[in-house]
Design goal:
Elements (H helix, E strand, L loop, with lengths): L6 E4 L3 H13 L3 E5 L5 E5 L7 E4 L3 E2 L2 E2 L3 H6 L8 E5 L6 E5 L1 H8 L2 E2 L7 H12 L4 E2 L1 H13 L2 H12 L3
Parallel strand pairs: 1-4, 9-10
Antiparallel strand pairs: 2-3, 3-4, 5-6, 7-8
């Protein structure tokens, strides 16, 4: 089993976004999918190479996040809250993570952090379960409770996003 299914690169400004697209394209990757809100681009090449996902910084009411910890804090599972960041003018990388994320990853424990979309959270949990991770019963129940507490409009929006009917 591969360690990763794809490589995710989070970019923090327009200059880096354009530079990363140019590098990935130069390496022979082609655009295969664009997220409907325009914030994600998936690029992949032949079957022997893992896909590359370029992620533009999320926007909040104040604009672009600009910070690594802001970006990883919105990841829905603690075992995903990690980032390696290239240091400017250096070949070195800096690791960013939360201590609870490190502990969850070491214990192969799926802990939801973001109660926005229980369907997305459970889909991600299934992906990690295939890699040997487990989720506590109380966290599974929490996701089911979250679904029940959504309004019909919120459920409809999730259904539309999942089925591709935007």
């Amino acid at each position: 089993m591969p360690l990763a299914e794809d490589y995710d690169f989070f970019l923090f400004d327009e200059k880096d976004w354009e530079k990363a697209q140019a590098i990935v394209t130069h390496l022979g990757y082609g655009l295969t999918e664009t997220n409907p809100n325009g914030s994600l681009k998936y690029m992949s090449t032949d079957v022997w190479t893992l896909p590359v996902q370029l992620v533009y910084p999320f926007k909040d009411t104040g604009g672009t996040s600009g910070g690594v910890t802001n970006v990883i804090s919105i990841f829905g599972l603690t075992c995903e809250q990690f980032a390696l960041v290239a240091l400017e003018n250096s070949p070195d990388l800096r690791a960013y993570y939360y201590e609870h994320a490190k502990n969850a990853a070491e214990q192969k424990l799926i802990v939801p952090t973001n109660e926005i979309d229980p369907v997305h959270t459970l889909r991600r949990a299934f992906k990690y379960a295939k890699k040997g991770f487990t989720m506590r019963d109380s966290d599974i129940m929490g996701q089911l409770d979250q679904w029940v507490s959504l309004t019909e409009g919120q459920r409809g929006a999730i259904h539309e996003r999942i089925t591709g009917n935007y």
